[in-house]
Amino acid sequence: MPTYNHDRYLEHALRAHLVQRVPPDEVIVVDDASTDSSGEILARLVAAHPAIRVLRQTQNRGVNQAVAAGLREARGEYVCLSAADDLVASELIARSVEILARHPAAAFSFCDQGILVGDSGETRRFPLFLSDQPCFIGPGGFVRLLKRNAFTFASHSVIYRREALVSVGGVLDELRWLADWFALHVLALRRGACYIPETLAFFRVTPGSYSAAGPREASSQRDVLQRAIGLLETTAYRDVRASFRECAVLPEYRLRIIPWLITSPPHRNYVTPRLLARVLLRSAWRTLMPWLPIRFRWALRWIASAATRRRLARDRAAPDARPAT
User: Which of 107, 132, 155, 171 lies 20 to 30 A from 181 at CA?
Assistant: First the structure.
């Protein structure tokens, strides 16, 4: 858990991890040179809970470097990268570890997305409707899924196999707010992942949050996006480049993406008919979405995911019970 001046959320977020049905072996908090009362809060919690370890950085180095420092210290088989203003349900670890143990090929588990709206106390749930039951989706399954159905992994709900996350370089500092987006898609398309059709974690959305502020700066978002696509040309990630392109995987589907890619010779080959169609459709959807009731939006998502649910149900019913690929 990286933290920087999050004293008003920190204790609540940590206690949510400490009361898990399957308690964590360790909770590593990386204090990224906070200047608020975080130090005092952490000292009090450490005295009462030996599972908590605190790493203090003398300079503020940013979220990704704080996560990398914690990941280097982690000793467990599984890791959760949780923000200091997120909240997790008491079943997150238990449900995730149970299904990962049944599917050793999977690189991580993920759940439906839940958000906390600022400090209002309001929560919102965004079910993906990929399956009616927890399941494993292999690399080929993710190619089919992402070609038909663009969605975002709820990174705040993810439990990684530590070795899998390390194998893709962890969270790459150069990708800034796209670091977890990139790692999750590489792992899904390379090794597959487990899906739990429940909301077991909540991500706090505020105007000044790191993940929200970055994409608003068009030049910064363009540079980071182009850097991520450029990494697919390197030896470390070239094996999943074709899958990224075939699935038209992007961190956002706004019209501004098209000129960013087309006007850059190293990146224009990433533009495909599927990507163009998806950007146009998602841009239109973004205009309509505020006017549609959330239940109606859920219904559309349920319809869009129908083929995926049928395929995964057939895989579960197969006589040999092999995982979906």
Answer: 132
48: its two tokens: 């009462």
Which tokens sit at 22?
A: 């399957």
pTM of the predicted structure, to 2 decimals = 0.92
55 - beta bridge partners? Answer: 30
Nearest one of 312, 284, 289 to 301, comparing CA atoms: 289
Measured CA to CA, the distance from residue 9 to residue 286 in angstroms comes to: 31
Which of the pair, 215 or 149, is modelled with greater confidence? Answer: 149
Edge-first strand order for the sheet with 193-196 is 78-79, 159-161, 108-111, 193-196, 135-137
- C-alpha 250, offset from chain centre: 13
- β-strands 108-111, 193-196 pairing: parallel
pLDDT tens digits, 247-302 = 999 999 999 999 999 999 999 999 999 999 999 999 998 888 889 888 888 898 89
As a whole number, mean pLDDT of residues 196-208 equals 88
Band (68; pLDDT cuts 50, 70, 90) = very high
320 — pLDDT class (breaks 50, 70, 90): very low
Q: What is the share, in percent, of the chain residues with pLDDT greater than 70?
A: 95
For 52, 123, 250, 267, the CA distances from 223, given in Å and listed in that order, are 37, 32, 14, 11
DSSP output for 236-252: TTGGGHHHHHHHT--S-
15, two tokens: 């206690």
Domains, the chain: 1-76 (3.90.550.10), 85-317 (no CATH)
Q: Are 224 and 190 in contact (CB under 8 A)?
A: no
Residue with tokens 């000292």: 43
The rounded distance, in Å, linking the Cα atoms of 102 and 161 is 13
87 phi/psi in degrees, rounded to 5: -135, 140
Is there a contact between 146 and 229 (Cβ–Cβ < 8 Å)? no
